[in-house]
């Protein structure tokens, strides 16, 4: 089989497994705010944030921010970017029901992401290792999201494309990819940082790896462009609502049930979350330990095998999450753009290692769906 046929086979097999697990949860699901008891797959695959995307496709974004009884910005559509609902709306315009169209778009984008990811891993790994990296991507604990009405699959596709172009140093082609990505899922700012670090590394290694002036200018320009387009959505929200902090206040509304309405102070949310979940001193010790542990992981031989640019992305995105994200039940989904690290775990060829990783990943799918997707009464653990 050619490489692309193997990737397609892996992806389809993984989705069959995930959908079977989801159907079992749907069979056990009681009536809730979104569905009746025992919903069908397509209906069940469009709860939680899926309903926000459907709302955006139907009604767009509010020009006046909703306000709570105590005067704070409430949860609203500005937290969700427009590319995914825009694409799904093309299908609904020709008569395909939203629940079906959103899943089809997500599944198709997930397959495309798997194909591009294989090409990316092939730059660093042997064929069997690159394919197993795709296996790990397809059966990852949060991989059922690629069959839900969420924008994650499209985000994975744009990220994989951007990393492939960066590794191949095709800087100009990054402009359209980053543009679409910036309006699909957050991450363009982290990629801007990775591009800046990439420029610095190429500058310091220019004696053994030539860095012509044209490439210097182009890479720097694309890094600046990524930073600007990464800030475009908050600016658009400001322009449409007249509120400078419309986007950040909207995002902060989702953490208010945990710690109340607070200002966004970079690099503090993980410690705020640690204090809320664990108290002190563990609320401070654990975030520091996670940072140290992740940094140590990035310098291991398996991760170094993936090259400098992949590691720059992993470090940049991790720093982005550390700076702005408040860890709660959606943490696992927000960690998903770190998926290129799957290539490191694909390096060992032991059948026991590989079989164990697949089994553990599928078991963690069940755990993630139970914690985040299954609704048990009043549920405050969105995926």
Report on this structure:
Helix 1 packs across helix 5. The chain is mainly α. The chain has one domain. The chain is built from 20 helices and no strands. The protein is 66% helix and 0% strand. GO terms for molecular function: alpha-1,6-mannosyltransferase activity; GPI mannosyltransferase activity.
Write down the secondary-structure element order.
HHHHHHHHHHHHHHHHHHHH
The total count of strands amounts to 0
**Outline, from the CA principal axes?**
globular
Structural class: mainly alpha
Oligomer: single chain
Q: Describe the largest sheet.
A: none
The number of helical segments is 20
Distance between the termini: 36 Å
Beta percentage is under 5%
How many separate structural domains? 1
Rg over alpha carbons: 21 Å
**Average pLDDT over all residues:** 96
Offer a few descriptive terms.
mainly alpha, 383 residues, globular
Any chance you could write out the topology, listing elements then pairs?
Layout: H1 3-28, H2 41-44, H3 49-59, H4 83-92, H5 98-122, H6 127-139, H7 152-167, H8 174-182, H9 188-204, H10 213-230, H11 232-241, H12 246-253, H13 256-259, H14 269-278, H15 282-298, H16 301-304, H17 307-324, H18 331-334, H19 342-345, H20 351-373
Helix pairs in contact: 1-5, 1-6, 1-20, 3-4, 4-5, 5-6, 5-7, 6-20, 7-8, 8-10, 9-10, 9-17, 14-15
What is this entry, summarized?
The protein is mostly helical. 66% of the residues lie in helices and 0% in strands.
């Amino acid at each position: 089989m050619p490489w692309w046929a193997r990737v397609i086979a892996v992806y389809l097999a993984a989705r069959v497994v995930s959908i079977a697990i989801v159907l079992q949860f749907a069979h056990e699901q009681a009536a809730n705010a979104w569905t009746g008891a025992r919903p069908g797959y397509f209906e069940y695959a469009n709860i939680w944030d899926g309903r926000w995307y459907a709302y955006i496709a139907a009604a767009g974004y509010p020009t006046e921010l909703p306000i709570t009884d105590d005067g704070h910005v409430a949860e609203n559509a500005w937290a969700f970017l427009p590319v995914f609902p825009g694409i799904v709306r093309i299908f609904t315009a020709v008569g395909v029901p939203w629940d079906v169209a959103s899943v089809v778009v997500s599944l198709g984008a997930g397959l495309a992401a798997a194909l591009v990811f294989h090409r990316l891993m092939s730059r660093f790994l042997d064929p069997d290792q690159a394919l197993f990296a795709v296996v790990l991507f397809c059966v990852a604990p949060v991989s059922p999201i690629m069959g839900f009405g969420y924008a994650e699959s499209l985000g994975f596709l744009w990220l994989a494309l951007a990393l492939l172009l960066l590794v191949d140093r095709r800087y100009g082609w990054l402009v359209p990819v980053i543009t679409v990505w910036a309006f699909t899922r957050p991450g363009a700012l982290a990629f801007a940082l990775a591009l800046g670090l990439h420029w610095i590394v190429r500058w310091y290694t220019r004696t053994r790896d030539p860095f012509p002036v044209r490439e210097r200018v182009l890479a720097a320009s694309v890094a600046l462009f990524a930073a600007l387009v990464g800030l475009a959505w908050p600016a658009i929200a400001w322009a449409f609502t007249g509120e400078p902090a419309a986007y950040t206040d909207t995002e902060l509304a989702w953490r208010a049930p945990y710690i109340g309405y607070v200002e966004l102070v970079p690099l503090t949310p993980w410690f705020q979350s640690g204090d809320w979940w664990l108290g002190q001193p563990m609320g401070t010790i654990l975030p520091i330990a996670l940072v140290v542990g992740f940094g140590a992981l990035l310098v291991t031989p398996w991760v170094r095998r993936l090259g400098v640019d992949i590691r720059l992305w992993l470090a940049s995105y991790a720093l982005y999450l550390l700076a702005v994200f408040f860890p709660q039940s959606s943490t696992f989904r927000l960690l998903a753009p770190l998926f290129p690290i799957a290539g490191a775990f694909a390096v060992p060829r032991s059948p026991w290692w590989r079989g164990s990783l697949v089994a553990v990943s599928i078991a963690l799918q069940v755990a993630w769906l139970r914690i985040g997707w299954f609704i048990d009464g009043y549920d405050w653990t969105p995926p």
